[in-house]
Amino acid sequence: MMKSQFKKAFIFDLDGVIVDTAKFHFLAWKNLAESLEVSFSEEENEQLKGVSRINSLQKILEWGNKSISEDKFNSLMAQKNEEYLAFVDRMSPEDILPGVLETLTYLKENNYPIALGSASKNARHILTKVGLTSYFDHIVDGNEVSKAKPDPEVFLKGCELLGVEPEQAIVFEDSQAGIKAANTAHMLSVGIGDKAVLSEADFNFEGFTELTEDTLKTLTNFKK
Ligand code: G6P
Ligand code: MG
Prior knowledge:
The protein is α/β, with parallel strands linked by helices and 224 residues long. It is built from nine helices and six strands; from the N terminus they run βαααααβαβαβαββα. It has a six-stranded parallel β-sheet with strand order 3-2-1-4-5-6, with helices on both faces. α1 packs antiparallel against α4 (70-88). The model has no long low-confidence stretch (mean pLDDT 95).
């Protein structure tokens, strides 16, 4: 039996890691930005990944040099979420990204503690839609944190609930903000997606299909 201080735990981001909801966020933000005549491309979108809904809208307004009333701000947030949820409504277990289920199954079978660490207030709803809730020992989402990524609060809460030190945590993230958060908290950061975009990560993979059992063992044995 391994001593608990050497035990590793896994924290998964949700959007863009477990499911490809990043594209739904992109479409909804793009529509909103265009309605305000603010230009919005993949490049701007990259800066919104992992960022809370409120901070995302603030950024779009800053980019367009726009100032709006509080009422308008709140109605835009509601409108964006409504549009986003219309996409989410059509989701099913088929939307789980390739390799994710295999990785979660392997980790569960090997008794690794697993948490979700997401900025999204819709995280629980999405996990239910795709049937993955039971894989997670703990879920920390946008309803439970006050400081958004790149602040590490969401991951630190995950560690606390899992009963591990930050140094024992391995974080899967598709966003620059999330990789920063994991690094700041001295966790092992694993970038899922474009290596050029996630160059600050300790390890990079295009997707979970690359994460074989041997690769997962390398991650759990790695000392940062
Ligand atoms: C994730 C996504 C962001 C999104 C944020 C809040 O971190 O990467 O694009 O803005 O969650 O999501 P929500 O579902 O609460 O609007
Ligand atoms: Mg993400």
